[in-house]
Q: What sequence folds into this?
């Protein structure tokens, strides 16, 4: 792809954002515990963060059809910068709750973000139906590699002791780095061509002929996200810290390889979808990953738990590019920003409820229950998705 193609800038911005999310998701619970907060309070911060993302994404759904996507992405990058600065300066729990709600801190280190529907709509308008799944796989691949590198960077605060820098100060500097990544991402978004919004689009209803499809998908995606919220990356890191006394450096290495495996799964998902279809790819890779998570919950030792979690990582994200491509394929072009938003919002809202529940289970010493609940609900979601949507094909499969 030529360097000046708008998709190139979207890929690069996604890489910067996911690099930041990669280390923030691991450092956030460590930072909050270092400040003296409990696991329950960590879970509440994660819930509030995801709830705030949901409300921002609702706003994006209404604005995406009426305003230039570039300006909305620039506003998101500015919010990311402000969030990093604020978290590095604030110690008060109530203020941290406000920052988590209004900012872009992402405890899941995944695609639950106000940026996602905007980037999806911008990317889909730049490619053909035949290219769409491959381009979304590349978009996810780049993000996963960047997230893996970010996870590895989470070990930096433990390494700075050799130069006399305290751990808390080093973690704060990582949040400052997160703010600078927001600035760099903004420069990339600024290079995306502006698309003038006509009067017809400006007065458009967010969802039209595809409303019923989007609402059904949103309901199913919300079940998947509610399940995933029990094991967002921050809470999975917390489980490994408390169950097996994993060090920060070890956690960084584990999440790095977890991200690498996820990254390699994306082009495989694109290839597989061309042979068995998008829905089948989503379902028949997701169910084995949930079984691996369920087994990890009962693993008697750290090596076995990590092995099972790595198997899960190699399979669990194969539905990400296929899901994004499927949503963009079964709605009209004018509805894409709204469809991406309204399928993301229930995901964010549902995912916002479960981290606090997981935190409560941690506090009550039921540390493995979040993993069990997550795996069971995800299997139910996959079966329902297959039953309801196996007959609704995207254009390239008809």
A:
């Amino acid at each position: 792809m030529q360097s000046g193609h708008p998709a190139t800038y979207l890929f690069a911005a996604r890489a910067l954002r996911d690099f930041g999310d990669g280390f923030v998701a691991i450092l956030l619970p460590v930072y909050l515990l270092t400040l003296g907060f409990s696991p329950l309070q960590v879970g509440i911060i994660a819930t509030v963060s995801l709830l705030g993302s949901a409300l921002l994404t609702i706003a994006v759904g209404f604005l995406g059809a009426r305003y230039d996507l570039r300006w909305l992405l620039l506003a998101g990058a500015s919010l990311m910068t402000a969030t990093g600065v604020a978290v590095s300066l604030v110690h008060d729990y109530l203020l941290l709750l406000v920052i988590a709600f209004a900012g872009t801190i992402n405890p899941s280190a995944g695609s639950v973000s106000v940026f996602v529907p905007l980037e999806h709509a911008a990317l889909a308008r730049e490619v053909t139906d035949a290219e769409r799944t491959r381009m979304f796989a590349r978009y996810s691949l780049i993000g996963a590699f960047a997230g893996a590198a970010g996870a590895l960077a989470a070990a930096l605060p433990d390494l700075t002791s050799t130069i006399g820098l305290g751990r808390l100060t080093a973690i704060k500097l990582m949040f400052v780095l997160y703010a600078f990544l927001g600035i760099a991402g903004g420069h990339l978004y600024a290079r995306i061509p502006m698309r003038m919004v006509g009067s017809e689009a400006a007065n458009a209803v967010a969802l039209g002929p595809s409303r019923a499809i989007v609402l059904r998908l949103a309901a199913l995606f919300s079940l998947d996200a509610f399940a995933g919220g029990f094991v967002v990356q921050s809470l999975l890191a917390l489980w490994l810290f408390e169950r097996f006394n994993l060090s920060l450096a070890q956690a960084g290495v584990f999440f790095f390889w977890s991200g690498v495996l996820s990254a390699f799964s994306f082009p495989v998902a694109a290839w597989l979808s061309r042979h068995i279809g998008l829905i089948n790819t989503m379902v028949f890779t997701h169910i084995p990953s949930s079984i691996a998570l369920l087994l990890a919950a009962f693993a008697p030792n750290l090596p076995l738990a990590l092995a099972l979690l790595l198997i899960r990582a190699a399979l669990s994200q194969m539905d990400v590019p296929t899901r994004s491509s499927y949503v963009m394929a079964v709605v009209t072009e004018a509805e894409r920003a709204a469809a991406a938003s309204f399928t993301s919002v229930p995901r964010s809202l549902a995912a916002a409820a479960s981290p606090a529940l997981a935190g409560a289970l941690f506090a009550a010493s039921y540390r493995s229950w979040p993993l069990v609940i997550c795996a069971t609900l995800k299997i139910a979601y996959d079966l329902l998705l297959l039953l309801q949507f196996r007959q609704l094909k995207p254009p390239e499969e008809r």
User: Anything to note?
Assistant: The first helix runs from residue 6 to 34. The domain at 6-397 is CATH 1.20.1250.20 (Growth Hormone; Chain: A;). Confidence is low (pLDDT under 50) at residues 198-205. The chain has 17 helices and no strands.
